[in-house]
Amino acid sequence: MSAFGVSYIVLWIVVLFETLVLLLVFREIGLMYMARRESFVRDGPTLGALIPEVEAFTPKGDPRGREDLRAPLTALVFGAFGCQLCAPVVHKIERWEAWVPGLTAVLVAERAELRVIPRDMARLSSEVWVVGKGEVKKRFGVRASPYVVLVDDRGIALAKGIVNHHSDINRLLSEVRDRSPRLFPVERSTDTPVTTGGQVVHA
Description:
single chain; about 200 residues; alpha/beta; Glutaredoxin; 5-stranded mixed β-sheet; two-stranded antiparallel ribbon; 5 helices; about 20% strand; elongated
């Protein structure tokens, strides 16, 4: 083979290698962008639309579904049995229940390999709904936890997002108030501290 032929082959190998490197760089940039907190806004059900049907069971085996969302405003907390932040988020929402009439929390957790409810979840006063493995992402498009979707008694999604602090809950409730004023018949500021059990929680 002539020197020209060898150089031609080497040139194509270099081009292919550079193309592969460029694709890998673009992939890493995409992963970094998708990992940003703002990207999770795209997750979850469509706002203003009916949430997907829920096929769940309580730890005692009682069936639960979308028709069981009878509270004026339900906070669906999507998590997993291994999630260390999910139960504390439910506790935070339970504190807001004293301030927001009709608000209730439901923890939606995927079924674990071990049929044992972790101690922190067993102590919740809110219901725990267990769904099949992979159902949270498949049905609701939720990739991270704790992820909260606020729905009304018709099953309409009104607000959604990652929740870690009281300020996140405050933001979601403000979105609900703007989207569905009927759920807040009395004008109240969700910036007011929540008083529960003698403690004041600054939301």
